[in-house]
Amino acid sequence: MTPAQRDRTQPGALGLVLARSTRLLGVEPFFMEFIAGMEERLVARDMSVLLHVVPTYEKEVAAYRRWAEGGLVDAVVVVNLVEGDVRPAVVQELGLPAVLVGTWPDGSGLPSVRTDDGGPVHDAVARLADLGHRVIARVAGPGSLLHTRARTLAQEAACKEAGIETVTVEGDYTAESGARLTEELLKRDRRPTAILYDNDVMAVAGLATAKEHGLEVPTDLSLIAWDSSVLCRLASPPLTTMTVDVHGFGTVVAEAALDLMDGRPATERWSPTAHFVQRGTTGPAPA
After folding, report:
1. Which residues lie across from 98 on neighbouring strands?
2. pLDDT per residue over 136-170, tens digit each?
3. Phi and psi torsions of 14, nearest 5°
4. Do residues 17 and 54 touch, judged by C-beta distance below 8 A?
5. How far is residue 41 from each of residues 6, 38, 97, 131, 209, measured CA to CA in Å?
6. What residue segments make up the domains of the chain, in order of their start?
7. 88-119 burial, b for 16+ CB within 10 Å, e for fewer?
8. Which residues on neighbouring strands pair with residue 76, listed in sequence order?
């Protein structure tokens, strides 16, 4: 059964499959805010988000096949795109309407909501450079993700342009990886004076690790987190962030999906751009 053949007397659904740890989903606020944004736009159409969490991309593909066979959803949202990603081709083969979200090369043939991954990184590096930082590190997300790669390329280019030494280490968005990788960075011969983190959970763990090493933030070390969640605002000191309107991001994605389901021409949309929010964890580089 295709989505078009589904009983239209039943409430509709927009499917979202997340290939990630359920434990991480419970502590990372991003996707809950993202789903809330989608739900806000869908509720006017008596629709909802059908969320399914699986451990691997293979399980995610299997879920799409089940959903297509049963006509359980009207469309799906595909997130966290990777190099050589087979999912866009799979949903097209299944006849499952889909919206790609995030960073993706042109030519997929599917409607998309794109993110600007490079611009905010250039902004963060420029602000740290103005504060005198000359050794900047980043605790990134998984290197297989296209948005991680885009941020890394932007960081390398911005640091090269500013004459700044930079290093990137790969985490998995968990507090454990944030703490472990921060400790590794602090033991380097050329210890960074500023660290950027690709999510809030790793940043809060990094802040705790810096304190355990006797460093005062931001006097000895500046920190910037990606996404401004309640975790960042309640940290001590509150974390400086590259802030994204995650709720608005979800709303834009839902609007793209509704256009697709209604047969309207697909238009390329952009997510809200991350912007710098100064709080208590950035300051001048130590002498």
Report:
1. 76
2. 999 999 999 999 999 999 999 999 999 999 999 99
3. -110, 120
4. yes
5. 21, 5, 18, 41, 40
6. 3-115+245-272, 118-243
7. bebbeebebbbbbbbbbeeebebbbbebebbe
8. 15, 98
Amino acid at 7: D
CA distance 156 to 137: 10
Q: What is the pTM of this model?
A: 0.91
Asked if the domains 3-115+245-272 and 118-243 are classified in one and the same CATH topology, the answer is yes
Length of the chain: 287
Strand partners, 258: none
Specify burial of residue 251 (Cβ count, 10 A radius: 0-12, 13-18, 19+): buried
The answer for residues whose C-beta is within 8 angstroms of residue 90's C-beta and 6 or more apart is 61, 64, 65
User: Which two tokens mark 279?
Assistant: 């709080």
Q: What is the DSSP string of 106-126?
A: S---S-EEE---HHHHHHHHH
pLDDT tens-digit series, residues 114-127: 999 999 999 999 99
- At residue 279, the 3 state secondary structure works out as coil
As assigned by CATH, the class of the 118-243 domain is: alpha beta
Look-up of token digits 């979800």: 250
Tally the C-alpha atoms within 13 A of residue 172's C-alpha that lie toward its C-beta: 10
Q: What is the CATH number of domain 3-115+245-272?
A: 3.40.50.2300
